[in-house]
Amino acid sequence: VHGGLSQSMLSPFELRQKIRRQEIQTPTTGFCPGFNQANLVILPKDVAPMFSKFCRMNKTCCPLLLELGEGEVAPSELAAGSDVRTDLPRYRVHQDGKFVEEVFDITTLFTADMCSFFIGCSFSFERALLSAGIPVRNIEQNKNVSMYNTNIKCNPCGPFSCQMVVSMRPIPQHLVDKAIQITSEMPQAHGAPVHIGDPKSIGIEDLNCVDYGDPVTIFPGDVPVFWGCGVTSTVAALSSGSGQVITHSPGHMFVCDLDD
Fold first, then answer.
1. From CA 30, how far away is CA 142, in angstroms rounded?
2. In this structure, what DSSP letter does residue 122 have?
3. What does the radius of gyration of the chain's CA atoms come to, in whole angstroms?
4. What is the pTM of this model?
5. How many CB atoms lie within 10 A of CB 196?
6. Separation between Cα atoms, residue 260 and residue 256, nearest integer Å
7. Rounded to whole angstroms, how far apart are CA atoms 253 and 89?
């Protein structure tokens, strides 16, 4: 996914500067261990209040870290000197609910009537798992995390209605309880798992067929553990089917100055 240990030792500011210069365009899992990462949704101001309410009604998958008002581009509360238009490795542009293109900079696309939402990410709890001796297979395998659509319904709000997206990490059976305990204390990073074990019971037929990210190898003795995923916010934003929506590309997050 990225270039090894030296990259993980970058400070969040250094990483964002490299991303702004388009020197790094890869998923951000494993970067800046110990610092919060965030999903991004940018949408028109007329639907922003209802989208904010949707996030508050679905905190497990959409823990809201920060809202920026119309035309604002500097999420200073999360990261000094940052710019929402340039500081994520990849963005996805959507029109009327349909994917249009993936880009590395949205300066020419961002308009004065757009509002930005930063939503917590499970990458933020990976250091805590590693520090407790729990392996994080996607980092070990130099891959993006595995993400899937499910049959778990979110609470609808106005024009926004969707089913939950989850991330999956294989956890050794004897460490599952510890992983639950650690992540349950980090609600800004989705908190405790929403499901453990059989993927078919939440509508996932084949773990090798990811909807987003990369398939991760599950070793003997591992159990699939599923957390709410901020990509849910993208699916929700697109469910309204109208206007231009800009999001992060799955796995390509905004890295904050805030520690976990």
1. 9
2. G
3. 17
4. 0.91
5. 15
6. 10
7. 7
